[in-house]
Design goal:
By secondary structure, the chain is mainly β. It has one domain. The protein is about 15% helix and about 40% strand. The strands form two sheets. An eleven-stranded antiparallel sheet has the order 2-7-8-9-10-11-12-13-3-4-5, covered by helices on one side. A two-stranded antiparallel sheet has the order 1-6. The longest helix has 22 residues.
């Protein structure tokens, strides 16, 4: 996000929101991970490395599985002056994936933005897609330092807690820095708490991004899908302005639209047999 100078026109980018989907600000969604003070015995260093390898492999499976699902994404971003909301950006999109697994986003509701003190940037929109629903796969392990923090009771499950931060930042790639909670049975991320981190460039030097939490829920009996992201942060911009920003992203109505399973009927016929028995 970047500030808007007084004489600039507010961004025309817009978002979507539906009152039926709007949770109470600050409310933890059902299935969300809220750590308690209870802790469990620490695994051995060897076991910790085994856990990391296994959950990274599971996260790779999840990433591929999510590309088989359509869902609806609802975004709401507000700026606050004290307790008063003085600007709002909303957008609701239906997200699908094409045959080449490319994301297709169809905006179904987008009222005019009333934000006047900040402007939504390409980086904000990219973070909603890639950083907020953070996935840490086997291919990504070399990019991050991963430190084991503990093993906690989280609502009705127990989870391993890790600190994750990039080893180095390359080019304009964006990374996640913060904590992740990994279910100790399914070995998948159930919660993230952190912020996007990146190399400061000419394009991003005046931008600021809020810290966020993302919660996942098990929606298909196998994989934990992101369902809720929230952020409530004060952004300090280079021009000295401090802006209170509140953001919620909902991921809803996951529906599998295709399967990787190949279905055949009857027995396969050998080409030679076909010639003998036309």
């Amino acid at each position: 996000m970047k500030t808007i100078q007084r004489l600039e026109i507010a961004s025309t980018l817009v978002i979507v929101w539906t009152a039926l989907l709007l949770p109470v600000w600050g409310q933890t969604p059902a299935g969300g991970a809220t750590p308690t003070n209870g802790t469990i015995d620490r695994p051995s260093p060897e076991r910790i490395q085994e856990i990391i390898k296994k959950f990274a492999a599971k996260e790779g499976e999840f990433r591929r599985a999510r590309e088989l699902y359509n869902y609806q994404q609802t975004v709401k971003i507000e700026t606050l002056n004290g307790n008063y909301v003085d600007g709002e950006y909303q957008m609701v999109s239906d997200v699908t994936f094409g045959r080449d697994n490319k994301r297709i986003e169809n905006v179904v509701y987008a009222p005019p933005s009333t934000l006047q003190r900040i402007q939504i940037t390409k980086e904000d929109l990219d973070d909603i897609v890639h950083i907020n629903p953070f996935v840490l796969t086997t291919e990504d392990l070399d990019k991050y330092d991963i430190q084991y923090l503990g093993h906690e009771k989280v609502d009705e499950i127990t989870a391993y807690v890790f600190m994750v931060k990039p080893k180095q930042m390359i080019g304009d790639e964006r990374y996640f820095e913060g904590q992740i909670w990994v279910d100790d049975q399914d070995l998948q991320i159930v919660k993230t708490n952190g912020r996007p981190i990146y190399n400061v460039t000419k394009r991003t030097k005046d931008q600021r991004f809020p810290r966020f939490e993302t919660y996942r829920e098990q929606v298909d009996g196998k994989y934990w899908f992101p369902t809720y992201t929230r952020a409530d942060d004060n952004l300090n911009f280079p021009n000295g302005e401090r802006v209170h920003v509140r953001e919620i992203v909902l991921y809803r109505n996951y529906k599998q639209f295709r399967s990787e399973t190949k279905i055949t009927y009857g027995e396969a016929v050998d080409e030679k047999d076909k010639k003998k028995n036309p």
